[in-house]
Fold:
Amino acid sequence: MLFRVGLQRNLLILRTVNQKHSLTFVFLACSLLGAKAWAQAPASEAEQARLRVRSVGTNIEMFGQPPDDRSNRAPATPGDSDLGSQFIVPLGEPVLPWRLFATAEEYYTNNVTLARNNKQADGYFFGEVGARYESKLSDTLSFETVIREGFFRYDSLTAQNFNSLNAGAGLFYNLTDLWDITLYGRYNFEWDTNSRSSRDLYTAHTLTVGAQKTFALRGRNFIYIGYSSIFGWAQQFAAQRNEHSLYLGAQTHLTKALDADLYTRFALFDYRQGGRKDFNGTVTAALTYHFNKQFSVNASFTYVLDRSNRSASNYDAATTGGGINFKYQF
Structure:
């Protein structure tokens, strides 16, 4: 997963200060899948592209939010391209519906190709620009839509540079009479292309459904637990799979400007071709420092362990890095 809790990067938490009336948007963990090597086969390239998009470069912004930020951005996490973004909305306070955002980050991973053996380490730059719109349709129902373009540029494996277009929309419903659990559903379109030839690497449509419960702690700190399923239809049939996961996370404010996030996910990847099934575990830790409402910097570390019923697809990977994030609300 590489990561970025910052890593999509795929949580939405929309919640009020009053837990009784909280709307919680959720997150869905990063999707990682194993490939024996960075092969030139379309299916292999599709999985590599999907990994990077879901893990590092899918976050609209970094986790956390400045104390005076009325949008109260909650931690972004891997997989945000399928779930959307997280935010906490205090009851009765105005919310600016539009958000423009941009990211520039640098990462290093010890296993670029997600190989079982003969791992290759490399660094890569991730940049992203996009726009998001969110609206509260009622006291318990919210709508969100986003479009973003990401750019992945590797230090050594430059032939693998690619661009990723993501667009999606989702609805989030808060069960106020059932422990303030939030139900969510989201559609997402992803199109990854080689930056040199514009050749398609991965084209897919996904539907995400899930539920999340958030527990408020002192000082606007919180923990959350949830379940999600992603049903995917990809142009590259060998890359088609469904994902089912349980996840747990927490955010704490170390100072007025510094946030810390911890996230873990356990997932089953069920491929439609060949009966392949992967069990994937992800742990991410991150720090975010907010200069003001517009600018923040982040640093994060992620470790992923993937075990498949096809042993050649087993892998583990560690990724670390960070960067600067910009947002503007209106």
